[in-house]
Specification:
4 domains; 26 helices; Rossmann fold; 16% strand; 599 residues; alpha+beta
């Protein structure tokens, strides 16, 4: 795990500043390579091959140089394959395997990789820069291109450290951010700044700065998968995700996904320390403690109550690399802080809900029976325009949006209705168009689950786990998001993965072999903090509201009306009804203020 930075042209000072700004991603080592064509830099978090031979940027011959963020779990197999072709080695790192693989096979090396990655390879003979991101989007990569300056980084803050990068807000992206609570890639909150999509690969001509892009996807098999097959491939994935030369731990909420990882680790005979956040007003801790006792796990805990939320909220918000209204970020930030005292790598159950249908919205989406694949007629905005006249309170808009999406009979409309909260309603159609354009780039054998896998998973949950772990200089790994696991389950029907009665059915059938039923089948709690924790400090709430009034008045008419209606002591009522809208306002406000960016 590392942080990578670079730009077109020779500018070691700028890349040095980018490296310094992203030093938390890799405090063990830093480096820069510069030529007249490009300058690339790296901050290294040493996980595999801790020796100086793992230093980046790494070069082979006089032609290729690489900076790499991630882990390749089949690097030993690929190393043996390359050795048979006559490749000699300078290190024992997976970085060198990617570099030598690219020298042998070109861009098709990514078809051979099993792992998570974001990397850049400079080819001084062809005068190109090759950028690549893994197909699940586990590792982030951003690109800035204003026509004069072209730069890349693992983080937006890295780009902003480059004095030639202009930090200007993208107003259209801001509208969608206020609606969804997250940025819909490839756009970000900033102009000229885009996120590479999951699996995206870009070749940049370093002379003309022209770009060619395509999407690399993992393939899914049509072969049937039994519970035994699934357990075997999951066990194999966990085994591969343990490859490290440093201590490894496990994030353990007590939910289905982290419990499954704990069971698989026990079956492998591996004892890892587990890390848990006891969240006030959540019931997961009781289950986590019972499961830990049953499995004989070492469980380390931290707590999150209203007092601690107020103490840690600002630091956690400023750790965000992009505004994100996700109340599970604070617990993830705190559990990463706890784990960083002992380990440099943690396993996490991210991806289980998206791959196996674990969200409450999935039965409704499944019922739409998208027999012809994911298509849209985009009618939802017309239905939504009537919604305000039918409602007296903005807090009821979620139900109206769901109703509108349902009446539309359209996957994208229904999906937006399920996940959106604060809404400039006129932006709904734009969001559906953007979603359709993005999803259409991919094969979608999982149909109704594809929307969450391709949108919500990388843009929210994987961004969250990367940001929270990297803020504390540890590496987060996600064994459920694995090439071989996807090969087995990607094409399986939704009805096999989840039913209206039992979500994530195959995973729970596996768990039932090792745990009492009452620890397996229980209501989904979710790894989030109660939104009310964010508004115990009235000054923070007032500041966000006034900032909204100064910059966004008129954008959300119903919100304007409620801001006028609820004043003074009634702010608590407002916070309850508009919690997520206000959270995203607060997050955007603090993020822009920290980056010294004005609207």
């Amino acid at each position: 795990m590392c942080g990578i930075n670079g730009l077109v042209g020779r500018d070691e000072r700028a890349v040095g500043a980018m490296n310094e700004r992203t030093r938390h991603r890799g405090p063990d080592d830093t480096g820069i390579y510069s030529s007249d064509l490009a300058t690339i830099g790296n901050n290294r978090l040493a996980i595999i091959d801790l020796s100086p031979e793992g230093h980046q940027p790494m070069r082979t011959g006089e032609r290729y140089s690489i900076v790499f963020n991630g882990e390749i779990y089949n690097y030993r197999e690929l190393r043996a394959e390359l050795s048979a072709l006559g490749v000699s080695w300078k290190s024992h790192s997976d970085t060198e395997v990617i570099l030598e693989g690219y020298a042998q096979w070109g861009a098709s090396i990514t078809k051979k990789l099993r792992g998570m990655w974001a990397f850049a390879i400079l080819d001084e003979k062809e005068e190109t820069l090759f950028l690549a991101r893994d197909p699940f989007g586990i590792k982030p990569l951003y690109l800035y291109d204003d026509g004069a300056t072209l730069a890349f980084s693992s983080e937006i803050r890295g780009l902003l450290a480059n004095p030639k990068v202009k930090g200007a807000v993208n107003p259209e992206a801001l509208k969608r951010l206020l609606t969804l609570g997250f940025a819909l890639a490839p756009e970000t909150i900033l102009m000229h700044t885009t996120a590479l999509l999951p699996g995206e690969e870009i070749v940049i001509n370093l002379k003309s700065k022209k770009q060619r892009s395509h999407i690399n996807q993992f393939e899914a098999s049509d072969a049937p998968t039994s519970d035994e097959d699934l357990e075997a491939v999951l066990l194999d994935s966990v085994r591969h995700h343990l490859i490290a030369d440093v201590p490894v731990g496990l994030f353990f909420s007590g939910g289905t996904d982290s419990t499954l990882l704990a069971v698989l680790l026990k079956n492998l005979g591996v004892e890892l320390t587990t890390y848990h956040v006891a969240i006030e007003r959540r019931g997961d801790t009781e289950y986590a403690e019972k499961i830990a006792k049953h499995l004989g796990l070492t469980l380390r805990q931290t707590t999150l109550d209203t007092k601690k939320a107020q103490e840690e909220l600002q630091a956690a918000t400023l750790a965000l690399d992009h505004p994100l209204a996700d109340t599970s970020f604070l617990p993830t930030y705190l559990v990463s802080q706890l784990a960083s005292k002992d380990v440099k790598v943690v396993l996490s159950g991210e991806g289980g809900d998206e791959l196996f249908g674990g969200y409450p919205r999935h039965p409704a989406l499944m019922n739409m029976a998208l027999k012809s694949g994911l298509r849209t007629n985009l009618p939802t905005d017309r239905l939504l325009r009537a919604a305000p006249s039918l409602l007296s309170l903005y807090g009821k808009m979620q139900g109206a949006k769901r109703l509108a999406g349902s009446l539309a009979g359209d996957a994208y409309g229904r999906y937006v209705g399920e996940i959106a909260f604060g809404s400039p309603l006129r932006s709904m159609r734009d969001i559906e168009h953007a979603m359709h354009e993005r999803v259409s780039k991919y094969a979608t054998p999982d149909q109704t689950l594809a929307l969450d896998r391709l949108l919500y998973l990388p843009d929210v949950n994987l961004l969250k786990i990367d940001t929270a772990t990297m803020a504390h200089s540890i590496e987060g790994r996600t064994p459920l998001l694995d090439r071989e696991v996807w090969r087995r389950i990607g094409s399986r029907p939704h009805s096999w993965k989840s039913t209206s009665a039992i979500s994530k059915s195959p995973l729970k059938r596996i768990l039932s072999k090792y745990l009492p039923e009452e620890l397996v089948h229980r209501p989904k709690s979710g790894f989030s903090s109660p939104p009310g924790m964010y508004f115990e400090n009235p000054e923070r709430l007032e500041e966000a509201i006034h900032w909204y009034g100064d910059h966004f008045a008129g954008l959300i008419p119903i919100l304007d009306s409620l801001l006028r209606r609820y004043s003074g002591t009634q702010r608590g009522t407002l916070a309850r009804e508009l919690s997520y809208t206000l959270i995203v306002l607060m997050t955007i406000h603090q993020w822009l203020e920290d980056k010294n960016i004005s609207l």
